[in-house]
Amino acid sequence: MARSRSRFALLAVAAVCAACGGSPSAPSQSGPLRLTVEPLQTLVGSESTADFALKLQNTGSTPVTLAFPSSCQVMPYIVERASGRIVAPAGGGWVCATVLTSLTVAAGETHVETVHVAAARPVDAVMINVPPGDYSIYAKLEDSTYKLQSASLPFSVR
């Protein structure tokens, strides 16, 4: 029984990723930088979780150093598809430390941030917790020079 439930959960996660097309969102590009969101394949999981990679790629021939006014750099946003309401971060904006930070992406390299989303779980500092439902995720980056937002990628958690 537990084994068949695990297989069902794995198939459900695969179906969710297949519904996303298993490919990245369309990139947002500014100069040499491209920002995308990709679903991550979950080997062991359930239909109540979804994992994503926020990818910032430098397609140029020189390093790019980004300067941020806070600890927030490449940030995920989760939108309820039916209403268009941002559900994560709560209130529409992340709480970040007010410190200057920087991020250097070498020429031809990609910086990756991993995002874990879970439905109806107790609050977990590692996961973004949302009610079961249908959502879209996008990534956003705003430094002193570049303002990027990836295309939205639909997903569901149950």
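(the above was protein one; protein two follows)
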Amino acid sequence: MPEVVKEQIRDEVKEEVLAQARQERWGEPGAYPDWLHRISFAGDVRFRFQRDRFPNDNIPNAPPEVFATPGQRRL
């Protein structure tokens, strides 16, 4: 294939790619795809806070019977 034909094909492909880039706004700062403009969000946001408070003396919050030795009964 002659070099002239190769250059002509290269130029045609380059022009097609550049035209597509201009149409789809490639490399344009702040440009978003078209499908992004069609999406919208609606609703509300709720936050919840839960605090687990434990005693300062490091004693678990369990009834005393759990910690009694076998045969010993605490009331």
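Reviewer note on protein two: The chain has a mean pLDDT of 80.
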